[in-house]
Amino acid sequence: MNLRALCLTTVLASGLLLGIDGRVAAVAATDASYPVPKKARSSSPGEVSPRNVAAKGADTNARDNTPAGAPGQHEDIVVTAARQNRMYVSSGGDLGALGKKKGLDVPFNIRSYNSSLILNQQSQTLGDVLLNDPTVRTTMGYGNYAQLFQIRGFTLYGDDVAIDGLYGVTPRQLVSPQLYDSVQVLNGASAFLNGAAPGGSAVGGNVNLIPKRAAATDITRITGDYTSSGQGGGAFDVSRRFGKDHAFGFRFNAAGMDGETAIKGERRDDVALGAAFDWHNDDTRIDMNMNYQKQQVFGGRSAIIVSSLATGMPAPKATSPSENWGQRWAYTDLSYLFGTLNIEHDFGSHITAYGKFGAQGGNEMGNYATTTLTNSRTGAGTVGAMADAYNVMNEATQAGIHAHVSTGPIKHEINAGGSAIWEESDAAYSMSLVSQAGNIYHPTQFTPSETYSGGTLDNPGRVAWNKLYSLFLSDTMMFWHDRIALTGGFRYQDILSDSFAYGTGKLSTHYDAAAFSPVIGLVIHPVKHAALYFNRIQGLSAGQTVGATYVNAGQVFAPYQSTQYEVGAKYDVGRFAAGVAFFQTAMPQGMTEAYGNTGQEIYTQDGRQRNRGMELTFNGEILRGLRFNGGLTLIDAKQMHTAGGAYDGKTVIGVPNYTINGNLEYDVPFVKGLTLVGRVISTGKQQFNSMNTTHLPAWSRFDLGARYTFLAAKKPLTARFEVDNIGNQRYWASVYQSDLVMGDPETFKFSISADL
Length: 756
Fold this sequence. Notes:
The protein has 756 residues and is mainly β. The chain has one domain (210-755): TonB-dependent receptor, beta-barrel domain (Maltoporin, Chain A, Beta Barrel). It has six helices and 38 strands. The strands form four sheets. The chain has a 22-stranded antiparallel beta barrel. Mean pLDDT is 88; it is low at 1-69.
């Protein structure tokens, strides 16, 4: 704790003592990246053009010419710095094949959460950021500490979170959000927009991360933070632009934390480093970012497997929120080196060509303790142990053109291109064949004996090799003074996947199949700031190669194709935006059925899950100084075709019937620089088993906090304090895919930032 206290003291002292001059860089609310011509991509708030970069700098210097100590100057600096810290959520983002778009102009539901929100909420994982989204819920993976995300009732694996629109580049299990300028959430299927996700998820939506790049004005920010019960850390963020017209940009970010969490006996360490470089002229834009992330968890609390419980068993009572049934020896060590390169060039005013490339090398080691509940009343169960080594080497690329042409009164935006992903996975494991007795209410410790192995942990061998190739083409036709936009297109996707036996490296299965994924979308602008829209789009994931235990062993199925229909309306005046969407998605599933009277079983893809619902979202300034972000989601997720009809019409396990989020920020008018913040997260009941005989009760959580911007030696400092889960509410957060996850305990967060 002495080291952490020293870090915080150093940061505070730097803000108090560094009186170099009174100049304050006016950092844009979105930390906007280098400027791009309007024709190349749709602008988003905070972006600037080459013509006004210098003008912005001139305006800043003009303000600085006011004599030090002049009346009102200090107050203006505080107000400006406070504005830069505002929660900002925009409608729009990167739509893959269609490029960067404003939300009002596309037939899809997409939102972007900016870096000031990430900083002010002191987010430590991607799941912390997505706590702000009323359409997303975060859960955990099987047997480890990986975060999974549920969008529209379907899973999004960490493997399928994108960076700069590229799959396969993001760290797989846990993501450090401090490296990103925005986190974009797209609701709904996206096989045409982004291609098939290599992990086979992203059916209900996807998440895309936009790395921080050099802002239009200089940034030098130092942050120190503390999280209960004993985590300390800090961050450093510097951004500079150089050369004529500020053509060259550089940005560097470093963040880290270390210490015990609010969960008893759990410790987490995190180091994240990111460097971004960019250059532009009137026709060409190039940017590159390189990142390193290391996350460690020691003695962590994992999810509980409840699939072995008898159907009549109720859901267990929630334990103390800080209780930890994990083993002290359990750990995970995740290291990733990854980056992207983007190039855009304008051929005249009508055609833009682009290319993207990304790569990731990851090394994962861990020893995991997994609890399987056998009696929900007493909390009794068994605890298994397994050590695992997993290495990945992935590459992804995408290239294409955006062309603007006119045929008479009709304007066309044509998008064409292709993408490719290559993934190689090396793995080995060692596990215990005998599980130990355990109890979630009275946990005990034991020493693992992992004697059964697959491969060598010190030298894991290849277990998977995946290749995904695709070509896409679309045309968006605009009529009636651009008030009507009709989009039609398709993507041809080829999925190749080989799996290999642990240890021997012998080919086990081979999969090679392809599919077309069409899209149709319609946007109508009845008035300037409103839109009505419709889309039909599909999700896509690899089918199955039938195993040896079935009568149709060796059969290779075509890719699973889910189909989504969505209608909605949007309203966006910049200061405030709202949207409503109604959707239905039907997804095929694998299932087994009796094969006549032979006593054998046949495997088919005739199963089906159907999710339908409504999403209502709001964000922006309601009244002067009062900002809101949040909304409501209603979901009806049904099993429509199950083996023997046993579960037909039953609700899918772990999909809540509603989710509600609300974030408020209020600038106190009589105290310059003071902002009060609050958040509510509410989740409806979730079915606990396939027969729907019991369910998890609905739960709500409240978070409160404040931030205060003030001057020290003519430099703006921002102090933040937040309490998550006020009152230490007990609740099971989710039971998605039969993995029961406990809600987080009451957690105190404090940080202070100095903009130098």
